[in-house]
Amino acid sequence: MAAQPPQQNAIKKQLSDAVGATYGHIQEPGSGSMLSFGSYDLQLCSSTPWFDNWRDAFLHVLPASDHEYLNHCLACVFVVASNNGDPLGTFTALANQQVTQQQQFPNKLPRWFCQGILHYYVLLHDMVDGDQTRADSIYQNMKSTFGVQICHLLQVNSRSINTAGSIKTAQPDPWSQFLLKPSQSTDEVDGESLPITDGSPSFPSRLSEMTQDQNQTTHLTDSLYDNMEESGSSGITSSSSVDQFSHPLASPTTPPSRDTPSPDSDPTAAASGYQGDYRTSNASHYKWHERTSKTHGQCLTPSDLDRLRIFMHEFVVRALVPWVERQMKMLSEQVTSRKAIHRSFFSATKKWFGNKPQGPVPSSQNTTVVYTKDAPELQLRRLGDLAFLFQMYDFAYHTYHTAKKDFNNDQAWLHFAGALEMASLSLFLQGPNTQKQYPHHYMETAISTYLAYSRNPQYATRATLTSTEALKKKGMFNDAAMQFLKMTSEDSDLTSALFLEQAAHCFLALKTPMVRKYSFHMILAGHRFNKAGQRKHSLRAYTQALQIYKARHWSIAEDHIHFTIGRQSFNLKHLEKAAASFKHLLVQESKQPTSQQAAFLREYLFVYKQLLSQEDRDNSTYGQLPELPLPIIDSNATKVLLTSGKRQKEPGSRKTLASGVGFDSHAEDMAKWENLEERILSVVGRPGKSSPPLFTNSTDNQASPVAFVGEAITVEVQVENPLHVMLVLSEVTLLWTFLPAIQGSDPPQVISNEITTNVKKSLADEIIQTSVVKEVIVQGIQNEHIQLTMTPRQPGQLRVVGLAYNLGTSSLAQNSAGLQTDSNTGITNQVVKPSYTSSVVVRGKQKLEPRGPRLNKTKEDRTQKHYGPDRRLDLLVQEEMPILEVSFLDFPESLLCGEVQCIEVEFTNKGKSPLHGLRVTSSHPRFFTFGLFPNGTNTTSTAPQQPQPPTAKYPFVYQMRAPHCGAIGPSLTSTVSTSIIGGSGYQPSADVLNIPLSDCQEGQLMPGQEVKLPMWIRGDDIGGVHEVDFLFYYEPVKSLSTVKHRVVHHQAVLNTVESLSVRTTVVRPAASNGSSNGQELNSCIFACELENLSQVQVQRPHVQELQVTQVSCVSPHWTLLSLGAKNNSGVRLGSRETLQLVMKGLKQDQKTETIGNLVFSEVAFDRDQVNTSCSPCSDFYWRSWLRHQALTGSDCGNSDFPSPPGFGSGSNNPGAMRGKSIMSSSMISTDATPGSGTLESAVYLKLTLVFLWKAWAVQESGQMRIVVGQHHVHINRLNTVAMSYPVPASMSSLTSSSSGAAWAAKNTRPALKFIRRDSNSKADDSFGGTAGANSLDPEISTKLVSYSFSHAHQRSHPFDKGLCLVPVTLTLQNHSGKEVTVMVDTGKSPESFVSNPGTVVASPDSQSQQGLGVTGSTVPSMRWVGLTQASLTLEKGQSSTLSLRAGMTRPGTYNVNCLSIFVTFSSDQSQMILQRHSTPSIVTLVDSSASS
Amino acid sequence: MSGNYYFVIVGHQDNPVYEMEYSPPNKANEKRDDHRHLNQFIAHAALDLVDEQMWSTNNMYLKIVDKFNEWFVSAFVTAGRMRFLMLHEVKNEDGIKNFFTEMYETYVKYAMNPFYEINTPIKSSLFDKKAQFFGRKYLTG
């Protein structure tokens, strides 16, 4: 009798358990069906059994209330066993007990329907044990005592327990459908959590069935009324076992009695009293059944079962129904009588006072109306309930309707809401028979009234449950959803979650399913489930919703879902799913703020670590590293470098190693190297290329790169961090597989280093030494390049498959930093293990799979996306090769322009086999030289006994002449002319140099051997930063592999600072009198303007003072003479000073000139004289000259080094073909085309001035340094300005004088000339070749022949004696290389042609040089006397003299240069060209007659 | 006129093409981040109602189509069935209508760019600027 409503917490727990229990059986993968809603595919479970469970549990724990009688007991069945000593007394006692309980403790459970409920007395008789006659007599007594209608003798157990065991196979357990299966009941539901529902099938099918049912309960609310039903029909205790009256609900320790006597599946059986039957027997045989292995009812024979049915039927038909009929009659009488009074009374008052508003009046206070137990309103309600219970729905509806009005009038809101609820329900249960519309607004009002006025959310919830079922049945899913949503509140998370989920399902059930609403509400439901602690359900809800949100780019929403799924999965120990979900958060393009991303990353690492350790325990992925999502690796950006990478010069060391090729090399760089290599190969004459050293995305990766044993392979991996959070990668290493190339029958085994055991790891490291990068920090939204090296130790096929690393975040890295630095270098387990435990880092890998270029060959390729193979990571490891290491000693960082320094180059063979055939080429061949050897013999690699040239340091950069400095030359011209015989050892193609390995055995560099060579370098003429590329080439002596040669790359960056600039103009000297034998005609004047360009600057290198120590002239014909006095102190130039230096050139006697020899003539301004014809001076001269040729010859300065045409034939064999023949041929052939060249040689000089200088340079550090250098001025023709600064032809070929305007004008391209070809001109004269005089440049054609006058400069003549005749010797010199005919016309002075420009070819700017003294006189006072016209022929280079006489009539000063000289070089005499000669030749005549 | 706004253009596959949030100038981003996923959820859920209501009217502007807690959802459907959604806490029918109209014009201009593929996210600073401008003009300003 101590039954109390369960405690609040206990209720909560029961409900929660009811929901939680059902999860596991339902959520199997693929259990739901796939449905398509528009573009959404949804896997869905149509049933929600956890909800049904919860509903049943909820209804069970719903406390009974006074406002309704549905839960109240109608009858009480008393059962006494037949072997009881005093059955009748016991019956009476039990009945009294019931009455006492009802009267004294009205609030205790169970509640009773009304006063005087139906008592039913059952005598239970055991057929085997009991005494039949006694039972009969007792039964007779009972009948007489209590009445026939309400007594029953129930005979059971006709079979003994022993016999029952033998035949139990035949009989099914009659209680099976009401009892829990043992497996289920033992599951986890503790005994107290009662009402595991009957195994009723899913709800809707029952609904339709039960509407016509004769059963006394309604199905819709079957759980709801279970309590009522149970207590109504089975207020039963077995008196035999228990003296105390106890109710099933109050005795939680008897599990079988917990069963709800739900309506039988067979309606007729129910009518036959099945339920009571079972309960009685149950009670009496409970203990047996407990013993007999939980099989119930084994002692019942079929007749017993029949008797049970009969008992039930008897009870219902003979006792219960008549009682109910009586009760209803009584109630309705009471109601009608009371109602009449009540009505009239109240309606009258209402009318009188008239302030009663209609409808439910909103009032804030709770209902104050308290009805007495037998108040007429309650009687009305009782009547309705009774009618409802016995399926008189129509009557019930009307009753409820009436009651509703009354309650409304009384403002008894709780009662009002209850009546409304029942009214609509009974109308609904009438089914389609009724005319009335289903009043769902009743239900809504009921719900809101429950909530608003009576503050009774539980009843509101119950009303919602029934209402929504009704609405669903009616197809009003939207309203159902709305009702569900209305009931979601802050109060109960579990209820809200369930209702939200139900609402979501309602959205799906709509005619046009609202998928997105569904997903949203599933999210909300999941959220509430989570709050309610139902993790599995939360996870399920979120997973459901994810199907909708997946891949729709609602990134933040998706992140939220993934995050929640990850969290829940983790909590539920679904680590794999959790990790996958967290992975989603990191992989996608995230819009989350930084802090959120950091949190995601931490969670991911944490979960992933747990997953890994779990898998570690399971040993499921032994030896295989998991793949990590971060950072993103751009496989295609992977670069493979086969050399050891770019090396920087170590500070403080003298040595600079060859820089090699780095990862930062671009395609242009590679093309550059390739060009250089091709240049060498063309010289060597070997086809085939070496494997490029660098493989990137832009290289052709069709073939596998070839690597060599013992040489490092560097792989650069580009990793990208998509997050804003810093990522820390530690212990980064490459993963590879290796297939050794072993000769033998056994197929080689693939070796990999993706293993975690120690032994295998070290073994793998022995095959391929793999570097480990300790720590790489990738900042947020950054790319990072990680360079990793491997050194193979065996030949074979090496494939880089991926990257292994520990992934961590920044904060954690700091914690573990100490530990990681402590650990040794290996990535063995010992190292990884502690970091696992100490910080959140996970070890994983990512694959490296570069993709080749997209194919574009076939149509399929074009229409689809096919990609070619990319083999840059499939390396072919071949046998060892020699490795050349090149290093430079004291390689300067900056030089003055033209500065020459001598440095040392060191060649070392680091490999294990000898190498030979060392060659070098450079992008700037004029930059360096290895020099010539003193004996001047060829420096081929086959000359092994060459003495090592002295490695000269300053002041021995240059080789000095024999120390004859004291013996200064006797004359003004301190000229030493050295004629260099051809064969001076110039290399034929100066761009590829053999490197003389002179002290090596047979030119081979043995392993470990080291050779030092001097090398001179000269700063470029152009100031600025220069990148000088060196390509060293060598061949292995014996090569096993296909690779026949190898190369070493070096790129030097050099800054040159401007120093000296020289501008030289060469003019023919004026016809000077008095010089002997016309030598002056074969000379020229060099006017040099030297300028020190360097400016004094603080903190920057500059030249303080510059001294020109020597000028040398290199030319086949010309020698250099000094005009000034010998000055030992030199020619000094301060900063930004200009100095003019004039020197004289003398043409060698053409007869003695040997073709092809170069003459070095030197004018020294210092004590020491440099042997210009030796290295390195001559080398640099030569290179500079070649460059000059290239610049002028090709007219555009772009191509730095085109091979001069003369070298083509000889370039194939560097050793044999060199020397003068090559020299001379080049000199001539590059000059101009033959033919015109012979004429043009009149103005061509073809000489080079070499200015050697010494400078006091101030370093950046402020230290003074004396440096030496040389500049070259290449002078091609007369009257031009030649500069030491290399300028392309379009600028340097500017002729004319040095007027600034001309400069400016000539800077533009020369104008096109259109020349009409005369029809009578020689047909064989090709236009471009030997052009006629017409087409010849007037600059040249007017200077073919020069002439000078020799005569007395002053003369006295008595003019009174008449005409003064001055003998004049005209010397004519043919400068052209061709025979010319000269016509001397004394009759015409050049200016006479001025008025007739048509005949004068020369430009009219020639000065009109007339007699200086003749002013104001139009008549020329000087006439040539005698021969007026002479014609003579001059051979090439020949000079000739003519004797002329000039006649003057008056004293004065005369210019005798007033004759015209025409030259023709063809047979056509009409093509006479006036020669220009402007210098006046003055003769002064003094009249001696005056004195006499 | 104050209150927060969340504007989204939804493409044909229910994918957001463009998103923008507006908050009144005086109370800048407070508790913003907690709400961001909720904004998306609400907007996405409202699509069902937009799809339902767009056939019942000739107007492009559908007014308030949905409500969740304190959030209203207004919608605008373009001729190309791009759906403009606006989440707002206060009713501002005219302002939102004007905003939608202006954004529609901006969107049409943007969509005419031959390099823009329809239904792909709009990534244009100019578009952002316009959206910000109209937001200030009609919504928060």
TrEMBL record, chain A:
One Pfam family here: Ig_TPPC8_3rd
Organism name: Elysia marginata
Biased composition (Low complexity): 231-241, 250-272
Annotated TPPC8 first Ig-like domain residues: 666-896
Domain TPPC8 C-terminal Ig-like: 1344-1464
Superkingdom: Eukaryota
Biased composition range(s): Polar residues: 199-221
Residue ranges, annotated region (Disordered): 173-278, 847-867, 1202-1221
Record protein name field: Trafficking protein particle complex subunit 8
Residue stretches making up the TPPC8 second Ig-like domain: 897-1048
UniProtKB/TrEMBL annotation, chain B:
Designated name of the protein: Trafficking protein particle complex subunit 2-like
Gene3D superfamilies registered for this protein in UniProt: 3.30.450.70
CDD domains in the record: TRAPPC2_sedlin
SUPFAM superfamilies with a match to the protein in the record: SNARE-like
Location in the cell: Cytoplasm, Perinuclear region
GO cellular component: perinuclear region of cytoplasm
Keywords noted in UniProt: Cytoplasm, ER-Golgi transport, Transport
Protein family according to the UniProt entry: Belongs to the TRAPP small subunits family. Sedlin subfamily.
One BP term from GO: endoplasmic reticulum to Golgi vesicle-mediated transport
Regions annotated as coiled coil: none
Pfam families for this protein: Sedlin_N
